[in-house]
Design brief:
Layout lengths: L4 H26 L6 H29 L3 H25 L3 H5 L2 E5 L16 H27 L10 H30 L5 H6 L1 E5 L11 H12 L1
Antiparallel strand pairs: 1-2
Helix pairs in contact: 2-3, 2-8, 3-5
């Protein structure tokens, strides 16, 4: 069926405008979606709540066996639970459970590590080992060293004593870490990237796990944990 001449002419005249609209739409679709800052912070809070939900029944059970036992082994319980959660979340899935609820996953910007041996999550094994040491092992060591120093009165020793100097060095390291963490958080609020110091140092950032970022949070997993916690 032949179109009238003026329709064909109008169609031909509209082609440049249509091509410009298609090009602008393609550029909009290609724009990467960025995760919300509040979503990344909420993911961290959800991870902490999950750890607490898993730890509380164990602590209560140990307190029934022997009074005071729970306080002496609480760091080890937290360490084991964190290692298990890390293994079955970040190592296997590339995201923590809190990040999964927020629709986020870890991605790396380190090109030098791409092509190396990967974990089941697809992230480099060496990168995850270092990240796990920073986020799980080092906090446990710091907590144990601080508790040992306080129980043995290192802060009360003379200034020339090496234990006092070790205590002061520990306080300086903690102060530098806290200051760096504050600066990193301010940068995170500014550009929305690298929620923690370890993430920034290793080039790990949280990105949407799908092209369409769902802003609603599913609490199905947390509800199951709360029911299990209530029964135990």
């Amino acid at each position: 069926m032949a179109f009238p001449a003026f329709w064909q002419q109008a169609w031909d005249d509209a082609q440049p405008r249509l091509e410009a609209i298609r090009s602008s739409m393609d550029s909009l679709i290609a724009m990467p979606s960025r995760p919300l800052r509040v979503g990344q912070v909420d993911a961290e809070n959800l991870d902490q709540e999950l750890l607490q939900l898993l730890k509380d029944p164990l602590i209560k059970s140990l307190s029934l066996i022997k009074s005071g036992l729970e306080s002496s082994v609480e760091p080890e319980i937290s360490l084991i639970l964190q290692l298990l959660l890390y293994k079955y979340s970040v190592w296997t899935l590339g995201m923590t459970y809190g990040a999964k609820l927020q629709g986020l996953r870890y991605t790396t910007s380190r090109r030098s590590l791409k092509g190396t041996r990967s974990a089941p999550s697809g992230l480099p094994v060496r990168l995850l080992l270092i990240h796990g040491a920073f986020t799980v092992i080092l906090p446990y060591i710091n907590k144990r060293v601080r508790g040992y120093a306080l129980s043995n009165s290192w802060p009360d020793t003379p200034s020339y004593d090496r234990r006092r100097r070790a205590w002061e060095a520990l306080l300086k390291v903690e102060s530098v870490h806290s200051t760096a963490g504050l600066l990193n958080f301010l940068l995170f609020l500014w550009n929305g990237r690298y929620r923690s110091l370890s993430d920034r140092a290793l080039g790990l950032k949280l990105s949407p796990s799908s092209a369409v970022l769902n802003r609603s949070v599913s609490y199905e997993f947390m509800n199951r944990q709360m029911v299990w916690h209530a029964f135990t």
